[in-house]
Amino acid sequence: VWDILDEVIREHPVLLNRAPTLHRLGIQAFEPVLIEGKAIQLHPLVCAAYNADFDGDQMAVHVPLTLEAQ
């Protein structure tokens, strides 16, 4: 599974969203890097846009695969 996921994300950006999306920075595109574990790591400079305070925040990750979705 790891190899397949690595191949997919190498060619596709991911969208990271934290509900509710109240402004345009509430959903952003990133080039992901796979890491071990079940957590999403964010660069500190994007935390303010998501109001991320690391107290159990939930985020959605979308991977648009088709040309229509991109």
TrEMBL record:
DNA repair listed as a keyword: no
GO terms, biological process: DNA-templated transcription
Cellular component per GO, a single term: DNA-directed RNA polymerase complex
SMART domains in the cross-refs: RPOLA_N (SM00663)
Keywords: DNA-directed RNA polymerase, Nucleotidyltransferase, Transcription, Transferase
Stored SUPFAM superfamilies: beta and beta-prime subunits of DNA dependent RNA-polymerase
EC code: 2.7.7.6
Highest taxon of the lineage: Bacteria
GO molecular function: DNA binding; DNA-directed RNA polymerase activity
Reaction equations catalysed: RNA(n) + a ribonucleoside 5'-triphosphate = RNA(n+1) + diphosphate
EC class name: transferase
Domain RNA polymerase N-terminal: 1-69
Protein's name according to its UniProt entry: DNA-directed RNA polymerase
